[in-house]
Amino acid sequence: MALSSQWRSVFAPGGAVKIISGITQYDPLVVGRVVRAATRGGATYVDIASDPDLVTLARQMTDLPICVSTIVPEQLPACVAAGADMVELGNFDPFYAQGEVFDGGRVRALTQRVRELLPAIPLSVTVPHGLALSAQAELAQELVGWGADVLQTEGSVSLQPQHPGVLGLIEKAAPALAATYTLAQVVSVPVVCASGLSVVTVPMARAVGAAGVGIGRAVNRLEDEWAMTAAVRAVVEALVPTAVV
Fold it and tell me: Is 87 left (phi over 0), alpha (psi -120 to 50) or beta?
């Protein structure tokens, strides 16, 4: 389906900031802190685990659009009924350590299943980082054909930078940045650059063609809500320096 005018306005400036509480994070206290921080910090939308109760909670706290993430499509209709504005397959990072494998065939099948269940809801799909960039590009085009409205990158959370400081931050973000550039060249839908980003590297995401960035651990691993808010604001201002928050 084509994105609604609401979502087109979210991505059109290339400065969308999605704050992610975590696909496996079901603690309402943590999710609540992340959602409030995202709202206060000037984020564009929030991404939470696929649970109707969490959607209801988030909707009470924010007017921001709500995306829900899962690898189980059957969880999504109830979340949409509870008020979710977008659904997402991925980010897959938390599942790799559990032995899960997300190849092109599995991601295509999941995408098709979501579209069977929810033919009209905006759908974001993560392109697995384990694929070669050429394979990511090929899969991206297929996913758009199967109904993906937004694509998202990921990078290995286990990647260990070889250098400290700014150079290390760039190394950490490099896989997601490379994937973003690659996907943005072959699809016309928005590409969200996610995984390993920081205030140093979010401007690079926009430069390589991202319609927005997804920020998770840089915010959700913080324990203090005001520290979370400050982190969100820093990302927003780094991505769009002229933004008034």
Answer: beta
Tell me if 146 sits within 8 A of 187, measured CB to CB. Answer: no
Report the run of H or E that residue 193 belongs to, with start and end. strand 191-194
Q: Please count the residues of the chain.
A: 245
Q: How far is CA 72 from the centre of its chain?
A: 17
Residue 237, judged by CB atoms within 10 A of its CB (0-12, 13-18, 19+), counts as middle
List of residues 6+ apart from 81 with CB closer than 8 A: 52
DSSP assigned state of 202: H
Distance in angstroms (rounded) separating the CA atoms of residues 206 and 191: 10
Rounded distance, CA 197 to CA 217, Å? 9
Alpha carbon dihedral 58, 61, 64, 68, in 10-degree steps, equals 0
Phi, psi of 41 (to 5 degrees): -80, -10
Contact criterion met (CB below 8 Å) for 171 and 164: no
Q: CA distances (Å), 16 to each of 149, 238, 243, in order?
A: 15, 12, 11
Q: Using a cut of 0.90, tell me whether the model's pTM lies above it.
A: yes
pLDDT by residue for the chain (245 residues), tens only, comes to: 567 777 888 887 778 999 999 999 999 999 999 999 999 999 999 999 999 999 999 999 999 999 999 999 999 999 999 999 999 999 898 898 899 999 999 999 999 999 999 999 999 999 999 999 999 999 999 999 999 999 999 976 556 666 768 898 999 899 999 999 999 999 999 999 999 999 999 999 999 999 999 999 999 999 899 999 999 999 999 997 654 44
CA–CA gap between residue 149 and residue 111 (Å, rounded): 11
